[in-house]
Amino acid sequence: MTVSGASCAKAEISFTVNGKAKTLCAYPMERLLDVLRQQLQLTGTKEGCGEGECGSCAVLMDGMLVNSCLVPVFQAEGSSLVTIEGLASGETLHLVQEAFLECGGAQCGICTPGMILAACHLLNGKPETTMDEIREGLSGNLCRCTGYSQIVEAVAEAVRRRMTV
Amino acid sequence: MNSNSIVGRAVPRKEGRDKVTGKSQYVDDLVLPNMLFGATVRSQIPRGRIRNITFGSGIDWDEFVIVSAKDIPGKNCIALIGDDQPCLANEVVNHPEEPVLLLAHPDRHLLPKAVEAVSIEYDPLPAVFTIEDSERGSDIVWGEDNIFKTYLIEKGDVDGVWDKADHIVEGEYTTGAQEQLYIENNGMIAAFDAAEGITVWGSLQCPYYIHKALMTLCALPAEKVRVVQMETGGAFGGKEEYPSMIAAHTALLAIKSGNPVKIIYDRMEDMAATTKRHPSRTRHRTAISKDGKILGGEIDFTIDGGAYLTLSPVVLSRGAIHAGGPYYWPSVRIHATAVATNAPPHGAFRGFGAPQSLFAMERHMDRIARAVGLSPVEIRRRNFLQPGQSTTTEQVVREPIDLGKLLDRALEVSDYHAKKQGFAKGNQVGATRKGMGIAAFLHGAGFTGSGERYLSSVVGVEGCADGTVRVLVSSTEFGQGTKTVLSQIAAEALGLPYENVGMAQPDTLEVPNSGPTVASRTVMVVGKLVQSAALGIRQTLISSNLLSDTYTAGEFRVACENYVAAHGEFRSWSRYEAPSDIFWDDQKYRGEAYAAFAWAVYIAEVTVDLTTYSVSVDDFVALQEVGKVLHPLLARGQIIGGVAQAIGFSLYEKVVWQNGRMQNSQMTNYIIPTSSDLPPIRVHFEELGNVYGAYGAKGIGELPMDGPAPAIVNAVQDALGVYFNSIPLLPEDIMDGLSSSSQDNDVVSAGRVQ
């Protein structure tokens, strides 16, 4: 659903995205997804369903995994956001990104940003995740290409690599 | 192939890095200056004559660009096989999602309200919604008889077999519509310039289908239509034809407004309005000898095409040719029909008719097994096609395929016999029942019959000024790995590192027409052409004395640079030529239907919960022979992804229809499998090699969609002893089936059983 803010006034909203402080003007009920994509040009966050079912628009908000299509932007006031653009440091990929690349975790790529952030969230909460926990932990993110096996394997590989670092 | 081979290795996905970092540009990520947003006003009724259109109050209509059928510069149709589907309805609507008007505005948030404010009055006309209603013909909604297309495949003397039969087994099987549910919704951007013509950028599979449709619609010559594919977030056939419609709509708005226009569907519009898998009904009547051999049979295959012709004739053709499965039929008559209804047109979806007719065939084999008193394993073994025998279209199997051996391997890796024995004992108690099911099947790669000859695909390979190489094809990447595998093939042919080969973005201004990216044809057919075009580059450099027969990557780079410096643009082209030994008769529907078949045996293990009636797939073995596997990681990913979609097709995904309209067009109520619903899917490849494809590869993309549904339903039958002949098979269907405890007796002709 698209929430039109045409009838109410814009407000000044501040938050941090990928470590950078941002202040912008937006309708309070605008979707965080639209603000990220349209105002901040962070187009790595994708819209799949617009109703919180598919997880393609997932971002980290103060460490929590949220579907940005369901978050009115005023709720993000003062928060710290991480999008897919904030994971790699320069040319060095995050280890989850690296594992997705090597294990075939990305096919068409549209669910990939949300899926990778969901995986990061899972690993942050539970560093020694089992395969079943990975399957359960990613079940809020839909993928139509992979049948999930190679995504689950990628996350397991990231877990393994992090343990050995 | 030596140990340095690039084919056969899991090289990094070409565009993989951009995908995992979020840098890939999909159509909705592209913003052009002064761009407007477009929306579509659709009919709300299944069939009727438009009487009046009114624009409601509360909207400043002067701010909107409004396009109707009258604004179309050329022919009002989406040109494909036929020209029957209008771009915008003019006088009559034929399904409830038919586009009638287009709106555009700079603020995309204002469009939904404006669409709602348009009201269309109709004089309703009678509509039909099922195959049976359409066949009855009391209301004619398309042509003279509601029939889009029929085929008749005849082999041997079917009429003579019934008297010789020890058993005659009949059955009727149906499959439902299925939504492709790519996670990226359909979308397109168009820009118009009087001098340069129309350009569209979009999420799409087939740039040249759109090119043709826009030429017809806009009355523009080929050079004034340009189609560019953006990164595409899944397609599965769902972006084969409908993108032509959306491209047409954005083009009309761009021409009228003078601004670039973007249309992005939301999920509900995408699910409701765009194409889905054809619902089907298959009837089998089969004559069987007492030792379980097929003597002959009649197969009646019917699909619901929806309101317009679109691709239904081709879907029907593939379904009909695959209807006999991987078995030897001494005689057979396959009668196939595509009928019209007042639903949105059904279209391409991975498998393209074959999953429907193979579901019927493989369910029917289990029924035959029961009638004859043989096991599901044995009935298949006794009827498998052997090299030298011919298919239903009398195509002689020339590959050294041994289906019995594939079956043995699948039984072994799935631990079939031990499990089946264990379940037979363990199934007597408790609140769950377990079962094992088998499906054996085949999938033809490439266009059917003369299709590839008509397509006459062209591929280019370019030696660039900087000494690198670029592959020029209209074949698109939408997750399956086109860019990676075609680069591997070119690199292998040229003896260059994979990294030295790039892919041109599909853009009709730049790439030749290598045909549509469909029909499991990209690796086998287009890949072969890439191989030969790449060899052309090498030959030219060698015959120009710039390169010796053996060379390093550095030497190649220098030679290539020197060639371009001396001669300018350096491109090598390769055009498809049909192998001389391939024969196909379009009239009799007889001959070499496909240059190669992939073969497979899949085995499903299921548990049925007797409290919730839900089915879980506990283990799944997917064993196939697909020729040479060019990229093991991508190939395995294709198989697992296809199996997952087919598990959805079997057990979850039900399109609920009311008066031709999808009622559950949301991810909330149309359920696809999640990561926690799926079993480990165990993939095994047997490699025989195929002379036609690049480095011996055959098509692979569609194959895994064909087998899981019958394997799973066969397993449910094994668990419960109840016959289910329709998919999707939902818990409520299982509850109904168990309470009516439907037996198979009614479908085996009296007097001929045992």
Number of E-type strands of chain B? 28
> What low-confidence regions of chain A span 5 or more consecutive residues with pLDDT below 50?
1-6
Give me the CATH fold name of the largest domain in chain B. Aldehyde Oxidoreductase, domain 4
Strand content of chain B: 15-25%
Counting DSSP H or I runs of 4 or more residues, the number of helices of chain B is 19
Q: What's the average pLDDT of chain B?
A: 95
What would you call the structural class of chain B?
Answer: alpha+beta
Characterise this structure.
The complex is a heterodimer of chains A (165) and B (754). Chain A has 165 residues and is α+β, with helices and mostly antiparallel strands. Chain A has five helices and five strands. Chain A folds into two domains: 76 residues, Ubiquitin-like (UB roll) (Roll), CATH 3.10.20; 70 residues, DNA polymerase, domain 1 (Orthogonal Bundle). A five-stranded mixed beta sheet of chain A has the order 2-1-5-3-4, sandwiched between helices. In chain A, helix 2 crosses helix 5. By secondary structure, chain B is of the alpha+beta class. In chain B, 29% of the residues lie in helices and 23% in strands. Chain B has 19 helices and 28 strands. In chain B, strand 17 and strand 18 form a beta hairpin. The radius of gyration of chain B is 26 Å and the shape is globular. The C terminus of chain B is likely disordered. At the A-B interface, helix 2, helix 3, helix 4 and helix 5 of A face helix 1 and helix 16 of B.
Keywords:
heterodimer; A: 165 residues; alpha+beta; Ubiquitin-like (UB roll); DNA polymerase, domain 1; 5 helices; globular; B: alpha+beta; Aldehyde Oxidoreductase, domain 4; 3 domains; seven-stranded mixed beta sheet; 28 strands; disordered C terminus
